[in-house]
Amino acid sequence: MGIECSPARVKDAAGASKMIQAVFAEFVAPGFAPEGVKTFLDFASGSAIAYRLSGQGFGFVAKDGDRVVGYIEIRSNDHICLMFVDRSYHRRGICRNLLELAAAECVKRDAHKTEITVHSSPFAVEAYQRLGFNQTAPEQKQDGIRFVPMRYSMDVKKE
Question: Which pTM does this prediction carry?
Fold first, then answer.
């Protein structure tokens, strides 16, 4: 059985949160102050993800069987607020696939959409650069969360 990507549903929120929090704890949290860790964990809780998915937010989930191994969430139709892949699935093209699905959905919702932004953790800057993102400002800090503003120019085929 291969990895399948599909639109994220409220029922995926708990699995996505569990995976995100594990990846965050290993790779990102060590560079954050306690305030930032708490802020992030509150934002990435299963209930918070479910709430956003039941409203205006949308996302895509990558699953290996029933196990969530990747997740991307978009807010305001142009900003990645979460994109994580399980450690054992890194460098398999899952982020690229999720990004392509999300970009296509952004354009489907607004044909004039040309870019997506993200506040990358310092750990993930290189991964985002490999996906085609460019840094737009120096590293910043807000509510204890360190991030690097980045932008992706979409090259989505319009039908």
Answer: 0.94
Distance (Å, whole) CA 77 – CA 42:
22
Q: Which tokens hold the place of 142?
A: 């807000």
DSSP label of 92? S
124 vs 137: CA distance, rounded Å? 15
Domains of the chain by residue range:
3-153
Q: Residue 157: in which H helix or E strand, if any? A: none
Give the CATH superfamily of 3-153: Gcn5-related N-acetyltransferase (GNAT) (3.40.630.30)
Q: What is the distance of C-alpha 155 from the center of its chain?
A: 19
- 99-155 confidence digits (pLDDT tens): 999 999 999 999 999 999 999 999 999 999 999 999 999 999 999 999 999 999 986
